[in-house]
Specification:
The chain is about 35% helix and about 25% strand. It has about 210 residues and is of the alpha/beta class. Pfam families: RraA-like (PF03737). Keywords: Magnesium, Metal-binding, Methyltransferase, Transferase.
């Protein structure tokens, strides 16, 4: 199997400047993760290649297996079927840091929030739960899957911040970030015009609504 395309040079820095919302709009793709998957501490940011896996409900064995396989610099994207339990906590955070994992996106739950926050490890989750998990099955580790309806394969680019999470197909990353930079430049010009007295109706070509409102 061929390796996924390498991310664009300086992708993380460029993505941090733009943010997930601008990149989502620029992509033109259905790449936005369920908005209920949110950062557990304000200011967390991820821009990194995905390493997808699937856990059975209430079972985190796939995560432990992934820790021995995940390429350094990756973000774990963990599907659980939206089952909220404590799949992840302080122990796995320390293991992830040692393995070179740069963050976690999970449609289930996590715990040990204070410890994770203190370590400034980026985690985006559907919920918080004290309930532990078993270790009995591993449906999928490192294979393409869907995450809250969004396709994800190893090497796709994840961008996550306070606005939400997007997953950009590896082959669309360069186009998306270039389009995002063009969009950001256009918005910067628009904001300058707004400070000089222009209106959003004028700048967005919506002046016909002045008559109908």
């Amino acid at each position: 199997m061929s390796s996924p395309p390498a991310p664009p040079e300086d992708f993380a820095a460029r993505a941090r400047t733009l943010g997930s919302a601008t990149l989502y709009e620029a992509s033109g793709l259905p790449c936005a993760v369920d908005p209920l998957v949110r950062t557990i501490w304000s200011g967390a940011f991820i821009a990194a290649p995905a390493y997808p896996l699937v856990c059975s409900p209430g079972d985190n064995l796939s995560i432990h297996i992934a820790m021995e396989r995940v390429p350094r610099g990756s973000v774990l994207v963990v599907g659980t079927g939206n089952f909220v339990a404590g799949y992840w906590g302080e122990v796995l955070t320390v293991a992830a840091e040692a393995a070179g994992v740069v963050g976690l996106i999970i449609d289930g739950g996590v715990r040990d929030v204070a410890a994770i926050t203190a370590r400034r490890f980026p985690v985006f989750a559907r919920g918080i739960s004290v309930r532990g998990t078993v270790k009995a099955s591993a449906p999928s580790v490192g294979q393409p899957t869907t995450f809250t309806g969004v396709p994800v394969a190893q090497g796709d680019l994840v961008v996550a911040d306070d606005d939400g999470v997007i997953i950009i197909p590896a082959g669309q990353a360069e186009r998306t970030i270039t389009a995002g930079e063009a969009r950001a430049a256009k918005e910067a010009t628009m904001m300058q015009q707004l400070t000089q007295g222009a209106s959003t109706l004028e700048l967005m070509g919506l002046t016909e609504w002045r008559k109908s409102a």
